[in-house]
Structure formats: structure tokens, C-alpha cells
């Protein structure tokens, strides 16, 4: 949690979906600083609400539950859905049908801003010796990345047609620390994640903006030039972990797709091959 | 039908899906020239096969039926699925689940080339005074366009991961003749459609290539420079219809989204608003 | 004059300014085919109107005269103003103050489409071994080119702010025939000029579009890709004059700015140096 | 004023025009550090010269006065002219005729470097969710922006034709502090303004270079990549004001052109509508 | 040979190197139409001169011989050197040392225009499903392509430093007819070769221009947009051979580098692996 | 030497060529920290090896010596060859034949990573008011730059064909301190040189990557965006020398090619003119 909130702008009611997921758990206590009421939801029971919280249970596949979930909400931080490579069916349910249900609920409830947890796996089939920007054609590295690309396009449609604004965060690797050399490029600290989410929530005009979620790492494959209007300024860096990570992982097998492509492990293994 | 086939290259067995649809009906007799056996399919019964044909009934949502449908096939011309703006559910079924089933069936059956009927509605929210190329970020104009963008990304994934090649045809307006001034830009004759499909089937190396499907029209919004390796050379043009079309439709309401955006009528009306 | 009009679309009243200028004289009889009434104007008296014509005298510097001139007009073909390199004062009067007066008159009279005779001299300081498109930063070759760049920017402003559409024609060299080797690149036949003006008048949506005015010449320095929505298809070519022109002008002095820069003679000599 | 001059390079005589204007008043005491003599001018009387100063009164519209003003000058910092949206006539006089007079005076007096106070309003009709670079086609948001675009093109001409170098500063918002959320993107401190002007004056080779004038703000719409040779490194940032500004202006009306376009207030209101 | 010369421009003395090579033999009788004297050279004896010819023997590695060879010459058509993949040593001698000797001889003799037979193998490691333009970074497919890239850079240097102009022709496959499906993309007829060489010789200003040498083929991987100022308009096309070629070569092995890369056979086999 | 090594990754045996050259001497003691054995070589005798060193004498022109030199080596830092503008012959020997011998030796010995000391003189004929990225077409400023462009293309070939990875460092000016105003843009400290070499050695996947070698200077002409995957983060800057350098060199002669072009002194003088 940042010592001081990243912005004094307060929402009456923010919704955080996927509140029991890895990043949801990180964001839940942090987002309270930015709203009067933080509504948190998950597909499973979240227990009793904390101070300033509302708790709801809602499955993304359940259209009516989603409609109720977004009622009275100013903005959504959508961390829900499947967040790893999985077989097609759960990804279809959570990330395709679920994303549609979310945006329909936003449209019907008049919600005007969504922070969408997209993923670097939308472009995971670019090589690790390529630097791409946010307009490069997508190259998903699996069904998960494919479903996130769908979500981004859905967000674009809902902006072009109904004026609902989205910031699609192509999150790299948000963990306590980078665990391998790939993550020296993709890592984003939890504090920077908070900064990025808040920047997306508070930037005055965003239309549909795509931005890669990463800290200020020396090594990077991604260029956020087209998203500078978001005002995201990372203050952490994977560089402080470099020595330790490189000491642990001295060698790279350059013929392994895991080493070659930006998607890393998502490229190589899947439950579906 | 072209007087002479566009290529002497022959496939043992070609599959045409959506054979009872508007473009399917046009392509069905034409494709017989390029294969020993033309397998045609539709969700509803197609009646008795013609000479050199095999007829199968298969719904795109039916995984097993799709698996059987692609068995023994060299290449697929995928015209099946929903081809107009519709509510979400039928589009989900036919164009998202259906596309997945088709590609899985291709992967399991070792089919290596697919011609995918995508649509100009993938980029329908660009303005009619903009010229875009095939790498411009997508801006679908509705659920139909959104589902076609999904299909293109799916095709990219199946190429990057499993080497299945696809030519995604962003078909403009393939009708006997252009019926309004928008179609002076988007029109593609049936003969040019045949040329384009055959070019896609016979080009030696295509990876995943996106190409707009249009005749050699004086007015156009689309630049196919990145797809020149397909070898598509249109020989028809909307220009011969210009006088008649313009005479019929003298005025344009420039404030109407239908006139402003490339997607035309798809932008303005939908069953879902 | 084309044997057959380039379009059946007819305007009630078209205004042609600069009707006694070089290109105005060419266009005057041609434009009658596209309107019920052709209003023609010049700073000096044009004599009696022809059939289907209205004649007005108006100086571009005269705000009130311009306001009256555009009253009741559907669209304007603005060929008026200074069309050669001149000292600053006449260019200021005719092409800067005059352009402002024209657009103000259009705004006040509700005129919604202007064809603006801009010039290749807006980019005359690019070299003859460079190919530029319509988005390249301007490099005017003199006060004339500078004033035309002003006119284009004015057109952009009146579109962005008040929705008045303009097609800015960066005319190359519109003469009966190319007279030197530079014109093999820049030449536009009078018939192609008519085609271009009519395309600009009748294209459904143009916003503010810049397009170079040239025939289908083998040699060219300009790329109109971004203006394909205008639907201009030149049918003439400088190629038929190539032999004669090259025979006449066998040698080029490559150190002469006139030979080096696209602006040709405009680069080298001026009344102001 | 910087504690220490930004460069030890000294000019014999620098000219600062518009010395009584908002930015002129800021720059006047600062520029003394960079020259033996600072000539300051304004259209109205500036009173007695300070130490190391020469004072002249000169109206930009007055050709002869401008010729005298630039006599014996090494370089010009041109802050004069109209600096707000105004009706056409004063803008024409000060910023179009005036800019011409300035450059003609430079040419006749052999002055070889000009720092031209252009403006972000040259591109004010881009949206606040777009990031543009210095080569994007101009989209002025009013007559003021239009006149600054003219000045930039004039500068390009005088470089291409006569070798007079200019750095055109597209100044964002140079005030003591940002007063609204738009200025979090556009703000430039007075110290950074000094750094930018001095960088422009002392960079060895500039040709005609366009650069946006802003501090090191987290939020920005502008990319100065093409101007890195100027060597401008901002040391201030609007970020330190963010909390206060956002607390004061919690909400944005996203349908208001003032919020939507980069030009902000200049887009919405004008004395001329 | 063209029925009529492609241009009436005549040189006093043209030099054709490599006159006994495959393309040299084609060009030798054709070039006589464009000069008073055609000097032809080869490393081996060319026999007696024809009418209007001078014959010289000169090895590219022989500095003095090259100096003599270019004496009194207006322009050079440089077809000499190694033109197939070879071990390093002969390529070094003919195409690197030889190219240097040629340009030094041009500089010392005041020759101001060279047509340099470069090759598509300069970019042979791009894939056959990619379309590149003449500014794409080079990716040579072997020592031959590498040496041609050297020649192009040498040409650039001699233009930037000494004003010697070159048109570098990245020749595809210039044969009587395309012999396989790759050549449907790369083929250039001998007549088009003549048109291209003459366009390069006679274009007024070329600096150093790179252009791909191909006929007007439906299938292509190369975009000559940046070279339109050369005025090359191909009039032949591989399309007339398509049926025959495709009938002969029905299948492609998409895993074979020969099929995958633009360089074709040059990619796969070499005397050096 | 950095206080602490830039990376804990250690090689068994690193080769440093040109160890007695200017940069070789700087790198020799620094590289010992990154390997068990540092093999150093030069064309002349290097004397007795230091601790952890192997010393070899090898001329780049000597194929067999190079083959022996790379035997048993993990990676090469190639600082050898000619590093100033020279007549053609020594450059041919050291930088063209020598580079070929080095890469052949790498291929035969199975060496998989090379750091190649290229040079900013590969693009020295761009102007000092232009900012270029690493994909801009090369414009060498002399034979030295030409030979470095050859080396880069050779590296590309050996990656595309044989999978040998290279980072080509286009080194600016690596000296103890910048000595003139040009070097304020081009300077790279020795510490940053070490950081850059180590980044190139340890980045997991590099293919063939080009990167400009410079410190974090305020003034720059080069954009390394496409090389961010290398993870090079300069920590020094020419800015600390700016005052002193500018005080010493107050004036620039803008008509001197040395001042105008990025190559500086290499553009103007040569042993060969």
C-alpha cells in the first residue's frame, strides 16, 4: 500500500471484481483510499465486508448477477476472470462471456470507466529481442491471451459505440519480486500496480487506451509512448533484483520457446496440446 | 464463375462451410474447378450432392460434428457462421465457439490452410475519410465485427503455435452490384471473390495474412500493401456502376453515423441497442 | 471537357472563383455539367453570363463581397487568388486575407464543401529524389507555397471547429502538355483536373483531405494513399509526352536548385530576393 | 531565474521581443545572463533600460521598425505578438504580418537564429487521449493556433531558402503553477522555459526544429523524440502540484470539448463564434 | 529489345560491365540505342566490337584497369562481378574490392551516374509472407547478398560525399520466363530490365535510390513506393506464365527454407556450409 | 571499473580482441570480473598475461589464427580492427576480411554470442539536427563507417543463417571526457561502456541487435527504442561537462560539414580525398 494515496480523487463507489484473486487481494486494501465505498466481488464467498466495503458474490457468466453487481457503481476495476492458461471452456466462460456480461452491465447501469486487467499474453508470440508498442498487431500466446485480446476489442467497441471508457492494462508479471530473468523485463511491483490502476481511474480522458503494466525496468520489450496521457509513472524497478535473479539463473536455453518468446512459459506448455 | 479457373492447382478435397449462405452459394459451383472433391456443409440440410461433391450437415457449435467435417480435408474455405449483425448469443455460438471448433478440428485433422471469411466490420468504426491498412488496430462496429476480430486472432494463434496458415478476408460488400454509394468503396464482384479465395488457397506461404476483399474500385478506404504476397489482382470495379448508383442516391446526410463510418448501416442500427 | 460528365450528381448552385484565371477558364465550361446554376466570379469583370451561369465580381480581400458571393451556394471550387510566386503583399491580400474571407463567408452562409486549389509548392523544398505523402511536414518553396499551406490549415480548422469540409488539391502542373522534364512528374491534364474536382465535390465524406493533383504519370514524387477515399482515378498520363520532352531537354544541371527541388523554378527565382 | 546560467555561451546582443508580455517579463531578467547586451522590445513603452539592456519600442506590423530592431542582433527570442485567442484582425496584424516582418528583418540584417514562441494550440484539435509527435499534421484550434502554424511554416521557409535557423517552441502552459487538470499535462515551469530557450539558442545545429514546451510531467500528450538534438532536459514537473489540483477539480465533463481536446479552453470559446 | 527505345536521351559513351554475363548479354544490344558509343567490358575477352561499340578487357580487382575503363565515360551500367552464391573469396574479389575499384574509378574520372546491379538477395531472409519496402533493414541470405549490401552502402557514401549518383537495382529473377512459383513474385522480363536500366539512367535526380527490379506481377513481396521518382513502369507480368508454372509445381513444402524465405534457393544451399 | 560488477553472470572464457586498442585497454581489466578466464588478443604482442588471463597474438586477416583464437570461447567482445578513418586497404584487411574471419571462426567453434564494436560513423552522414533510430538506412561517412556497416550486415547474416547472436554497438565517443560540443551528444563514459558491453553479453535473447553506445546525455541524435530488450541503462552523462566544453568552444561554423553532420571530423577530412 502506498504511504500516501496516489491521487486525492475519490469515487463514491468503486467496484473491484476478482477480489480474491492474486492481484485482487493486493488491490482490495489499496483501493479503499480512493472511494467512499469499495464494492468487492468474487465468484466465491468473500466473507464479511471490511470497513468501507460492500461484499457481493457474482459469477461473471451470470448476466443478472453482473447487472446487479454494477448497479450504482462509478467505475470498475475488473480483475475477475481466468488469469492463467486454461482449457478453452473456462476461458470462454470467464473471459469471453464474462467480459461481455460485464460491459453490458456497465452499459445498462451507466458506468463510464473500466480498468480492464488485460495481459502481456495478448502479444506473447513476439520475440524477446523485439520491442513493440501498444498498436502492434496482437499475437496471443494461448487461449488466455486470446480471450484478453477479445476483451480489449470489446472495450474498443463499447467506447466507439456507447462512450464507455476503458484502460486495458497489459499486465506483465505482478509479484512480490521477479523470480526469473524473463521477469526482469515484465515485472511490476504491487505499488506500481496501484499507481497504474489509479492513473487509469483518474486520467481525465482515456477513450480506450492500451498500456503495458510494468515497473521502470532497465530491460523491457514494450513501449508505452501512445499511452502517456494516462500519466502512469512507475517508481519501482526490477533492477534491484537483477543481481540475485541472474545469479540464480545463469544460463538460458535459447532454443526453448519459453526463452525465445515474450510469453515465456505460456508459449510452451498448455493443458490443451 | 470465371470462364477459366484462376489457377490449375488442384486440391484433393476442399471443404466449403456455410454453403447455403449468400457467398457460400456463389462459391459452391466455382470451387469445384479447384479440387477432386468439394465437401460442402451447412447447419441445415443441403440436399443431394452435385457431381464431385460431398454434402455434410454440421453445426459450428457441435465440436464432434466439426471434427468429422474436417477429416480428410486439404484446405477449408470457411464461409459459415453468422454474417450479419445479431444479438450476442447467436454470434457467440456461431462465430466464437464455432471458430474455435473449426480450428481445433483443423489442428486435430492436420489441415494446414484455411480461408477465413472475416469482414470489413472488424474496422467499421474508422471514418469514411480515413484510409487504413491491414495492421491498423481493429475497431469493430458491433458484435459481428467483434466476433470476426476474434476469429482473426484465433487464426494468428493457430499459426504461431501450430503452423496452420490462414488468409483472413475482410470482405467488403460482395453482391451482384453495389446498391449505394458506400458500396462504391466496399464492393467486390463474385468473380473477384473467386479470384481472392483462390489466391488465398494457392499462395505458397501465407502465415496469417489479413486482406481486404474488394474489387479494383476508384474509391477505397483500405490499403492491401502488406498482403501483396497473396497475389490477388481484382479485375472488376465498382466504377462501372458509379453513374447509376450516384444518380439514385444524390445526397448524403453527413451527420448520420451510417454515412460517416466505414461500417455503414452496421454502425447505426442493431438488435441490441 | 469530358465527353460525359464524371458524375451524375448535380448541385443547385456551384461557385467557381478565379474564373478568369488559367485553371478557372478551363473549369468554367466543364463545371456547368454538374449544377443547375454555375456562379462564376473574378476580381475583374467577367462579361455577360453564359447559359446556366451567374456572373459576379468580387475581390477576395473584400469581406462583404465574399459574403454576398457565397450566398445561396452549395459548394465552392476556389481557384481564385494569386497563383504564382509574388511579393508578400499581393499574396497576403489574395491568399491569406482572401482565404479567411472565403471561409468566413462559407461559415456564415452555411456552405459545407469547398474544393481548395492548393499547390505542390506547399512542399516544394523536398528533393526530386524523394517521394512524400500527404502527411509529410510542409516545406513551402516561397511565399506562394507558404500562403497555400496557410489555406490548408485554415481548411483544417474550419472542419474541426465548424464541420465545413474541404478537399485541398495540391495541384502539380496543369497545362495542355508538360513543357519540361520536371513536368513529367507534376503534370495533370485538364481532363484529369475536371475528374479530380468532381471527385472532390461528390465524395460522400471528406473531412479535410489533402491530395496531390497529378495525372497517372510514370514518374512521380507524391503518394496519395491517404486520399483514396476521394475516388480520384486519373486517366491521362505524361508518358505520352515523354519522348518529345526528353528529346527537347536532354541535359539537367544537377547542381541547380531548379533541378534538385520539387518546386522547380519556384525555388530558384523570386521577386523578393 | 536559475541559480546558475544554463550555459556559459554568451551572445553579444540578444533581442527579446514582447518583453512586457507574460513570458517576456519572465525571460527578461533571465536572459541577461547569456549576453553582453539584451535588447528588449515591445509595442508599448518599456520604460528605462536596466543594466546591460537596450530598450526599443517597435510594433510588429511596422516593417521599418522591425528592420531597425533586428540591426546588430545575434539572435532573437521572439515572444511578441498576440498570445491568446482573439478575433482575426489583431492576429493577422501581430502574428502573420508581424512574423513576416520579423523574418524579413532577420534576413536583411543577417540574423541567423530565432527562438519562436509557437504554441500547443497549433495542434489543439487532437484529443486528450492521443499522443502526438512534432511531425503530426497540424490541427489548430483557433485563429491563434492557425497564426502560430503560419509562423512555423515561415520559419521552415526561411531556413530552407536562406539558412536562418529557428527553434519553434510549442509552449504548453507556462505559469507559476498548473491551475487545472489539463495543465498537469501542459505545464512548463519558468525555470524550464529558461532551460528550453537557452537550449534552443545554444544547440549547435537546429535547422528548423519544432519542440513542445513542457516540464517533465507524468501526464503528457506530446513526444519530443525528433527534437532530442536540442538538448532540452526539463528539471521541474507538474507532479508536485497534482494532489492539490486534483483535489480542487474532482470531476471532468467528458462531453465538453474543453475536456476532450488538447487545446482545452481555446477549443470551446472564442470572440468570433 | 524494345521496338522503340525507352527514351530519346542519348549518352556520348556508356559503359556496360559484365557484358558477357547473363544480363550483360541481354543488355549489350539494347543499350546501343541510348548512346553514341557503347563501351563493353568483361574480365575475359569479348571478341571484336560490334557497330558503335568499344570493347575492353578489365578485371574488377584490377584498380588500374578499372581506372582506364571508366575514362571518358558518361555513365556506367555495372552488371559485372559475381552474380551467384559463391565462397567468400571470389565474392570478396569481384563484389567488394571490385565495387570499390569501380567507384574510385568513377570518382577519379568524374563519372556522375551509375546503375548498380544489386540483388533481391540483399533482403533474402525476409519471409515470403512479408512485404517490405526499400528502407527495410537488410537481411542478406548469403555472401552474395552481403556483398551487394556492401555495394549499396558504398554507393550511398559516394553520393553523400562526392555527389556520384547511383540507382541500385535489387534485381529479382531476370530470365526468359519464370521457372517456378517463387519467380511468379520475383520475375522481371528482359524488356522490363531494359526499361528499368534506362529509367535509372535518365531520371533527372536520383541521389542514391534503391529499387526492386521486377515486372508488374500480381504476387510481390516488394514495395517500390520510395523509388517512384525513377519513373520505372513495368509493362510485362509473370501472370501470363502463372498457369503453366503452377501446373508444373503443384506443391510447396512449407517447412523448407527455400519455400519460406524470399531468397529461395540461396537460403538453403551454399558452397560454404 | 565499476565498483561492483554489472552482472553476476560469469562466462568460462571470454575473448577480448583488440585488447591493446583504446577501448580494449579500458575493457581488459573490467571484463575479468565476468569470466573465469579472459582471453585477450591483439595483432601485436601483449606481453605476459595478468591473473585470470590468457594472451594470444592474432591478426584478423589470418584465418587460421582467428580459428585458433576462438577455440574454447563462450563469447567474444570484438574491439579489434581499424578504429579510425584510414585508406581503403587497411580497412579492407582489418574490418572486412577480418570480420569475416572472426565470424567464420565463431561458426566453426560454436561460439554463440558476439559483441561487435560498430560505430556511429555507420550513420555519420545524417545531420546533427536529425534524430534517427537503429532502423534508419545507413549513411556511412567514410570507409571506416562503410566497413562497420559491412560488419553489422555480416552479423545479421550469421544470425539468420547460423543462429550466432550479435549486439552491434554503434559507439559514439568513448573518452575520459567529451572534448568538444559534438561529443556532448556522442559521449559515452568508460563505465557506461562496461555497462553496455555487459548488458549485451548477458541479455537472454538478442538475435542481431543494433544499439547506439552513448551515456545519458541531454543532447542526442539517436533513439535506442528498438534495443530496450538489451537492458542497457547508462548512469553517466555528458551534462556534467557541458559548462566547461561550451565555455571552451563558444562558436560553431554552421557551414562546416564537421559541424553539420553527425560524423563530425570523419566527414570532413580523410586520407583519401
Automatic annotation (TrEMBL), chains A, B, C, D, E, F:
Keyword Oxidoreductase tagged: yes
InterPro entries, per the entry: Epimerase_deHydtase, NAD(P)-bd_dom_sf
One MF term in the entry's GO annotations: oxidoreductase activity
Domain NAD-dependent epimerase/dehydratase: 15-173
CDD domains the UniProt entry points to: SDR_e (cd08946)
Keywords on record: NAD, Oxidoreductase
Family, per entry: Belongs to the NAD(P)-dependent epimerase/dehydratase family.
PANTHER family named in the record: 4-EPIMERASE, PUTATIVE (AFU_ORTHOLOGUE AFUA_7G00360)-RELATED, NUCLEOSIDE-DIPHOSPHATE-SUGAR EPIMERASE
Protein name: NAD-dependent epimerase/dehydratase
Amino acid at each position: 500500500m502506498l504511504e500516501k494515496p496516489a491521487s486525492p480523487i475519490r469515487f463514491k463507489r468503486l467496484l473491484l471484481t476478482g477480489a480474491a484473486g492474486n492481484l485482487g487481494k493486493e488491490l482490495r486494501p489499496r483501493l479503499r483510499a480512493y472511494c467512499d465505498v469499495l464494492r468487492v466481488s468474487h465468484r466465491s464467498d468473500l466473507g464479511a465486508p471490511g470497513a468501507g466495503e460492500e461484499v457481493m458474490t457474482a459469477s461473471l457468466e451470470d448476466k443478472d448477477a453482473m447487472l446487479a453487481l454494477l448497479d450504482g457503481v462509478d467505475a470498475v476495476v475488473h480483475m475477475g476472470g481466468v488469469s492463467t492458461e486454461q482449457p478453452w471452456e473456462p476461458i470462454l466462460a470467464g473471459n469471453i462471456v464474462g467480459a461481455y456480461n460485464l460491459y453490458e452491465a456497465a452499459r445498462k447501469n451507466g458506468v463510464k470507466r473500466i480498468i480492464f486487467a488485460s495481459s502481456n499474453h495478448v502479444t506473447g508470440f513476439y520475440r524477446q529481442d523485439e520491442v513493440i508498442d501498444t498498436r502492434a498487431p496482437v499475437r496471443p500466446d494461448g487461449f488466455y491471451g486470446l480471450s484478453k485480446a477479445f476483451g480489449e476489442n470489446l472495450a474498443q467497441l463499447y467506447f466507439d459505440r456507447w462512450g464507455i471508457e476503458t484502460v486495458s492494462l497489459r499486465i506483465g508479471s505482478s509479484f512480490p519480486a521477479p523470480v526469473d530473468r524473463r521477469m526482469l523485463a515484465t515485472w511490476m511491483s504491487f505499488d506500481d500496480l496501484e499507481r497504474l490502476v489509479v492513473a487509469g481511474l483518474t486520467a481525465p480522458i482515456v477513450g480506450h487506451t492500451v498500456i503495458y503494466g510494468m515497473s521502470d525496468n532497465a530491460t523491457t520489450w514494450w513501449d508505452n509512448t501512445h499511452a502517456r496521457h494516462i500519466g502512469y509513472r512507475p517508481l519501482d524497478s526490477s533492477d534491484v533484483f537483477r543481481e540475485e535473479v541472474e545469479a540464480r539463473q545463469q544460463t538460458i536455453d535459447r532454443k526453448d520457446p519459453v526463452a525465445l518468446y515474450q510469453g515465456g512459459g505460456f508459449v510452451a506448455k498448455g493443458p490443451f496440446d
